[in-house]
Amino acid sequence: MGITDEIKLSYQHGSYLTRLIYINLAIWLVVRLTAVILLLSGNNDLTFIDWLSLPASFNLFLTRPWTLLTYMFLHYELLHILFNMLWLYSFGRIFLEYHQPRKLLFIYLFGGITGGLFFMGAYNLFPYFRHSIDFSQLLGASAAVIAIVIATAAYVPNHVIHVILIGPVKIKWIALISVILYVVNLTGDNAGGNFAHLGGACGGLLFMMLLRSGYDLSSRFGGIFDLLFVWPKPKRKLKVEYNAGNYREYGYNRSKKEQQEEVNRILDKISTAGYDSLTVEEKEMLFRMSGKK
Q1: With CB atoms 3.0 to 4.6 Å apart as the test, which of 115, 145, 208, 286 could cross-link to 196 if both were Cys?
Q2: Does residue 236 form part of some domain?
């Protein structure tokens, strides 16, 4: 099985977390390759990035309303997407230990939207940003990711993770320190980004507070986001068709039945432990059986 087939299976059978990471990486790769082609051809105009980034100006946003969604999947610098995806993977895995994957997708999108609204609100409200509102814009998954971080910390504040060079740390302290840094840097070089981070944090906290009180936002509005993100779902059953003249019969012989049971076992393992938990042999079998559908 080649690397392309491995990526295809990992995306097809992976969780929302895996797919969110793949989508961010794929968009980053397309954006960078497009920029390379344009620059090498002598065209220094990269305004296509502006059409995907969230503008600070509300009047400009009205001409590009889709940017409230596209900006949270858009990265340009390597370190930017690297750190965002590391945070998303680390806290996303913790979140999925306690909640359904659909909630992860909802918080990502909801946090990204609240972060974008905080960003535009700050630039249109505070005189400090008046001189830069016309050319400022927001891109990156940071607000969406910090929403997951804060939601996870609010639900299991004493969950311990091991931080390089520091050791075991409760995630509530990571969340608290992050928020403090965002606040003290609201007039720094990345002021707009820090307002977006705070917006994402508020979105994640609001979701978890409502969830604890019995109101699940993802069940009320998640269907809207599902329409925007239609994930391909693998079929759980393999149908074998036998033709004998005009007579058609469906069924499994003993060997096929055993294969089907093994495939079901592998899919169950993916749903509980993730695609990465499969052995090489299990991945190979899943790939072979997928090709027979």
Answers
A1: 115
A2: no
Digit-coded pLDDT (tens) for 220-251: 765 665 555 554 444 544 444 445 444 444 44
Which of 120, 141, 132 lies closest to 22 in space, CA to CA? 141
Smallest CA-to-CA distance from 149 within 101, 184, 195, 111 is with 111
CB 67 within 8 A of CB 53: yes
> What is the tens place of the pLDDT at every residue in 28-58?
999 999 999 999 998 888 889 999 999 999 9
What gap in Å lies between CA 48 and CA 143, rounded to an integer? 22
Same domain, 156 and 72: yes
The 10s digit of each residue's pLDDT in 96-150 is: 999 888 899 999 999 999 999 999 999 999 999 989 999 999 999 999 999 999 9
What pLDDT is recorded for position 165? 80
DSSP 205-223: HHHHHHHHTT--HHHHHHH
Q: Number of structural domains, the chain?
A: 2
At 163, give phi and psi (nearest 5°): -100, 135
CATH number, domain containing residue 99: 1.20.1540.10
26/142 same-domain check:
yes
Q: Are residues 116 and 205 in the same domain?
A: yes
Helix, coil or strand: residue 242: strand
Q: Other CB atoms closer than 10 Å to residue 292's CB: what's the count? A: 10
Q: Are residues 48 and 176 in the same domain?
A: yes
Burial state string for 193-220 with b = 16 or more CB within 10 A and e = fewer than 16: bbbbbbbbbbbbbbbbeebeeeebbbee
For residue 87, CA distances in Å to 41, 57, 178, 225, 292 come to 36, 29, 12, 22, 37
Q: Is 143 a domain residue?
A: yes
The pTM is what? 0.76
Residues 205 and 248 in one domain: no
> What are 28's two structure tokens?
């980053």
